[in-house]
Amino acid sequence: MEEKRKEEIENSDTDVEMVPDEEALSADAAAKVKKLREELQRCEAGKREYLEGWQRAKADLINYKKDEARRFDEFLKFAAEGLIAELVPALDSFDLALQHGMPKDVERGIVMIRSQLEDILRRRGLEVLQPRGQKFDPAFHESLGEVETEGEEGTVAEVLQPGYLLQGKLLRPARVKIAKKK
C-alpha cells in the first residue's frame, strides 16, 4: 500500500510550489545587511573625511585672516618709517641752531617749529632716547668715547645726539660718551 502511494505521488502531475528554506532566506538577508553596513561605514568615513577637511580649511582661513590683519597693522605702524627717519635730522638741525646765539624772536620761532614737528612725530610713535645717567646699553646707545667723571663707571655721562625709537623699534641709537673713573 505504501508503494502504491509512492507511485501515485510520483506519477501525479500536480504543480508543486517551492517555498524557500528559512535558513537560506536568513543567510541571504544577513549578507545584504552586512553589505549595507559596510557601505554605511564607507559613507560615514567619507563624510568624516570631508568634514575634517572642511574644518581644517575653515581654520586655515581664520588663521590666514588673523595673519593678514597682523601684517596690515604692522605695515601701518611702520609705513611712515622712511619719512620719519628722514625728518629726525631736521630735529638735530633745530637743536644745533638753538645752540648758537640769535635774536630772541628768531629763537622763539625755531623752538615753536621744532616743538610742532616733534609733537607730530610723537603722535606717529616716535620716542626720544635721552639716556644720561643710565647704564650704557649697546642695543640703544652708540659710544663715541669715554669721559673721566666722578659718576658710576659704565653709565652714559654725556649725550651728543639723542636716539629715537619708532613704535618701540630702534630708529637711531643715542650717540653718547661713557663715564670712566678718574
TrEMBL record:
GO terms for molecular function: adenyl-nucleotide exchange factor activity; protein homodimerization activity; protein-folding chaperone binding; unfolded protein binding. One of its GO terms (biological process) is protein folding. It comes from the Bacteria. Residues 1-23 are annotated as: Disordered. Its main location: cytoplasm. The keyword Magnesium does not apply. Keywords: Chaperone, Cytoplasm, Stress response. The keyword Cytoplasm applies. Residues 10-23 have a biased composition (Acidic residues). One of its GO terms (cellular component) is cytoplasm. It is found in: Cytoplasm. Belongs to the GrpE family. Homodimer. Participates actively in the response to hyperosmotic and heat shock by preventing the aggregation of stress-denatured proteins, in association with DnaK and GrpE. It is the nucleotide exchange factor for DnaK and may function as a thermosensor. Unfolded proteins bind initially to DnaJ; upon interaction with the DnaJ-bound protein, DnaK hydrolyzes its bound ATP, resulting in the formation of a stable complex. GrpE releases ADP from DnaK; ATP binding to DnaK triggers the release of the substrate protein, thus completing the reaction cycle. This is Protein GrpE. It comes from Candidatus Sungiibacteriota bacterium. The gene is grpE.
